[in-house]
Description:
Keywords: Membrane, Transmembrane, Transmembrane helix. The protein has 525 residues and is of the alpha/beta class. Helix 8 packs across helix 11 and helix 9 (435-452) runs antiparallel to helix 11.
Amino acid sequence: MTEGAGLHAGDLPDDLTAAEAGMWQAFRNGSVYDLSSGDAVVDDPHGGHPWGPERSVRARMVCWLLLDGPPALAGRVSSLKLAGVRVTGTLDLAGGTVTPYVELRGCRFDDQVLLPEARFTTLRLVDCAVPRLEAARVHTEGDLHLPRCRVPLGIRLTDAHIGTDLLLNQAIVHQDRSGRSIAADGMTVGQDLQAELLESHGELSLRSAKVGVSLSLRGARLANPYARLALNAPQLTVERTLYLTPAGVGSPLLSGTTPARGTRIQRFECQGGVRLDDGRFGDAIDLDRARFDLTDDQVLSLRRVQTPELRFLGDAPQRGQVLLSGARVVNLVDRAGSWPGPGRLHMGGFAYENLVPRGPFPLVRRLDWVTAATAEYNPEPYERLAAVLRAAGEDEDAREVLLAKQRRRRETLPPAAKTWGYVQDLAVAYGYRPGRAAVWMAVLWAAGTLLFAHADHPPVNPGGHPSWSPALFTLDLLLPVVDLGQAGQWELHGGWQWLAAAMVMVGWVLATTVAAGATRLLRRG
């Protein structure tokens, strides 16, 4: 009788150990095969207590069951459900098709698990010790669960296709030889990718990955301080929300719910750079209370991302840079204390439609925010902020922003233009405070009227001239376009002639400045 024939007839292979024979029968019965001792210390798959032959099975026998196992008992569905089992040797299912349901809990693998290009219905490894998981291009119709697993040599899920959910909650993963903890470039997840309270030591790479619902890194800790990036996810697509937010530690509550009172909260923390460039997020990017520990050379990069809402509500990075160049969002939800200081924020081409501040965020702080993003003068961030404020009905604040833009621009001008800028600012605040021109005009008119009342003023034409009026004479000098028939009718000499010339010059300055400001206001109206 051949080995295959005996298998399909339901017979036990001759060389099975006692532990393997029990696993074989449990597979046919679809029941859990539990070799745990009942002692939590002994049964800890991540601990140092040795597991002997009495709870060990060979990886070759596990592969035999999964790829070409015996038929189920009558009325049963065959499945591999192991608990507290040690798997010796390399579990190699590369390229295979695994039909039975697979769930291993609290198991220990001596060697790496090889699943490249394998196909599963659902695969669950829960709280298992796995030296390395190699699963490039793996395909599951249902879930792939790896919660609480510890993987010291990394996980590879490049170009994997997960039919429903990928769970990495509370997993602890260290880097492989290339420095990556989880390499999942090009991966597709049909529904949620949950990696809450994940500990990643190395680069978590999700380049060009696609997630059908949400990606949750609530309470995760990503550490790659001596390399460039701890989270490398350019061109990431998430149909709903990316969560880099707190999680309740030890809470049995489902993902996304409010932690119960008294639950310890763990923030999302990242030691190392984050790259989310060119990402697409259907609902939001949520950075509520996130902490980013960057070096001077590392960045939190959101360049060219597109999302309806960016919740920039984390702690301000003390070092490194925040890049928002080319990003497009509808609602920018932020706090005044979440943004880095001058020279460490870049917002060239950053487009947002609404500002939704959490907590006090006065206009002076908002102007500091724009100034921090423009080490060199750039009008665009000022104009964007002014347009958003004007659309929200804050016209006065919008004018203050545009005035700040002109003052910032003035510092880049040559001396002569800078002097003219100071004159415009003093006179009418670059036209954004036109009422100031009326005040200046009234003061000069009153002063001129008092002074010219004492001036010697012989008429130019003794035979026909109007009556002398110091008030009309002064007003005629100050209004450069309107002719009141006074200025050309009288002769002034000495200092009075110089005073009249000064009045004409001041009138032209006021008129030019008001006209320039009115042109700016009309152009932006």
